[in-house]
Design goal:
Strand order of the largest sheet of chain B: 4-5-8-6-7
CATH class of the largest domain in chain A: Mainly Alpha
Largest interface: A-B, 45 and 39 residues
Strand content of chain A: 5-15%
Order of helices and strands of chain A: EEHEEEHHHH
CATH architecture of the largest domain in chain A: Orthogonal Bundle
Largest sheet of chain B: 5 strands, antiparallel
Strand order of the largest sheet of chain A: 2-1-5-3-4
Radius of gyration of chain A: 18 Å
Distance between the termini of chain B: 56 Å
Structural class of chain B: alpha+beta
Number of strands of chain A: 5
Number of strands of chain B: 12
Number of helices of chain B: 13
Largest sheet of chain A: 5 strands, mixed
Number of helices of chain A: 5
CATH topology of the largest domain in chain A: DNA polymerase, domain 1
Structural class of chain A: alpha+beta
CATH architecture of one domain in chain B: 2-Layer Sandwich
Oligomer: heterodimer
């Protein structure tokens, strides 16, 4: 069998297609930062432990440091650069600003991408490790501070801005709930 | 990282053919463990066969009334599945107790069973390790082993299996189906992991080149009342230092049937069959729950630094079974 150590891959990032040749060892994180100048996504531990590199792949939060670029073709990738609508910040971004959900800001892009997905996962009825009754007939758990802390535990903040991060996620979740109710009404 | 060839498989037959019998090739699922190990040099594959696009991403009812879970189903999808939550709640709890939301979105069921130990000596290529470099020795026995095995280990290796999911699957008698170039096969999860002995580098009974295709759960009425409880050194996003998956059926204050498995105490998820035997027919009280735990843990051989696990497991068993018994009388 002939073997090769690089391939051409087309990455669909924030709605734009980028075709590039990648060494198979390249992670999605390194492709974003080093090849495509999308440096909003941060490299923290590079071992899947800190969450700084969180992006959305097909709408689901993923650590881009453990995702190979060559395996990321035909996926819709959203980075922190792609969550706002033009000049209008995403409600999660706005809440982090309004409530001081960061200090140095290094973990913030990952926190924001993760929080966007947390709000969607919760709205879809996914239980968490702190949900008392996981059975489907149980009422979906309210997004309490305890639920937010558990669901956001894959994103570390060495400045310790956790108190404000929890408040920001709660505020953004409340707003997205209000929007859904309004559009349903 | 060593350079490697990358292939994406579209069907199961193609995947096993691409891997062949090449000992230097690996299947790539979510990559949450494999890619990490490749970065540190613990794994140095020459070829990856990406199996994420295989049509193995469904959870379906099985003919016997149980459940058939595709090997590429993600941890997130397994945990959120309404039938799993309804009929095997301890499985949902176990999966949600593991890793982080990001990792659960990537990680797959097949990969979960095949993930490697998080023993610090295994992860550090500058240290001896019989699992990584057979015959080089086990520094954990006389070194850092606070979170190592108390059951079924040997002088050659005291590493624990890190899975939470596997503990619940073991309690519920799961079977692992696989495909090879010679055809399909299956293994009860109870026989899936090999005893440690003097070959800790041989971890599973899968034939060379086998690809896990499905994990099946038989129907089990008592599993609908089940729990997974995990103890760890921080509140979230950490491996267990001890965990219990349990299901209990109680009638008139007496245990009619029980399932019990332990995590983070052995090289594999540990099914506590001795304890189950003591429980069956016994009064559903804390006293008998403790006696059941003691029967199982009599075989424990703790090291100087991890004796706490025996007490921890005993207390966990009593706590979880007491909660289940109370629930049963409600």
């Amino acid at each position: 069998m002939t073997s090769s150590t690089s391939s051409t891959v087309t990455l669909n990032i924030n709605g734009e297609k980028h075709t590039l040749s990648v060494d198979h060892r390249t992670t999605l994180l390194d492709a974003l930062r080093e090849r495509l100048d999308l440096t909003g996504t941060k490299k923290g531990c590079d071992q899947g432990q800190c969450g700084a590199c969180t992006v959305l792949v097909d709408g689901r939060r993923t650590v881009s440091c453990l995702q190979l670029a060559v395996a990321s073709g035909e996926r819709e990738i959203t980075t922190v650069e792609g969550v706002a609508e033009g000049d209008r910040l995403h409600p999660v971004q706005q809440a982090f600003l309004d409530l001081d959900g960061f200090q140095c800001g290094y973990c913030t892009p990952g926190q924001i991408c993760s929080a966007i997905a947390v709000i969607e996962e919760h709205a879809a009825g996914w239980p968490s490790a702190v949900t008392e009754d996981v059975r489907p007939q149980a009422a979906p758990p309210p997004l309490t501070p305890e639920e937010i802390r558990e669901r956001m535990s894959g994103n570390l903040c060495r400045c310790g801005a956790y108190v404000q991060i929890v408040q920001a996620v709660a505020r953004a979740a409340g707003e997205s709930r209000t929007e859904t109710e309004e559009s349903a009404a | 990282m060593r350079e490697f060839d990358y292939r994406r498989a579209d069907d199961v037959t193609g995947a096993v053919a691409l891997l062949g019998a090449d000992p230097d090739a690996r299947y790539l699922g979510g990559g949450t463990n494999l890619v990490d190990l490749m970065k540190t040099g613990v794994e140095r594959p020459a070829r990856l066969v990406d199996v994420r696009s295989l049509p193995l991403d469904r959870i379906e009812p099985a003919a016997d009334g149980g459940l058939r879970i595709g090997a590429t189903v993600t941890n997130s999808d397994l945990a959120a599945h309404p039938v799993v939550r309804e009929r095997y709640p301890a499985l949902t709890q176990a999966v949600l107790a593991g890793a982080s939301g990001q990792l659960r979105n990537m990680a797959t069921v097949g990969g979960n069973l095949l993930q490697r130990t998080r023993c610090g000596y295994f992860a550090d290529v500058t240290k001896p390790c019989n699992k990584r470099a057979p015959g080089s020795g086990c520094p954990a026995v006389g070194g850092e082993h606070r979170n190592h095995a108390v059951l079924g280990a040997s002088e050659h290796c005291v590493a624990v299996h890190p899975s939470d999911m596997g503990v619940a699957l073991t309690a519920f008698d799961a079977t692992v189906a696989y495909e090879t170039t010679d055809g399909p096969g299956e293994l009860p999860l109870a026989d899936f992991y090999l005893p440690v002995g003097d070959t800790p580098h041989r971890e599973t009974a899968l034939p060379p080149g086998a690809l896990i295709t499905y994990v099946t759960l038989p129907p089990a009425r008592l599993a609908a009342r089940s729990r997974y409880r995990k103890v760890r050194e921080r509140a979230s996003y950490a491996f267990a230092i001890g965990s219990v998956a349990a299901a209990l059926e109680v009638s008139d204050g007496v245990v009619c049937d029980a399932r019990l498995a332990f995590g983070a105490v052995a090289s594999r998820p540990w099914r506590a069959r001795l304890a189950e035997r003591v429980l069956t027919g016994a009064p559903a009280t804390a006293e008998y729950f403790a006696a059941a735990a003691d029967a199982e843990l009599a075989a424990a051989r703790p090291l100087p630094g991890n004796g706490y696990k025996v007490t921890l497991l005993r207390n966990l068993v009593v706590a979880v079974l007491s909660e289940l018994a109370e629930e049963a009388t409600r």
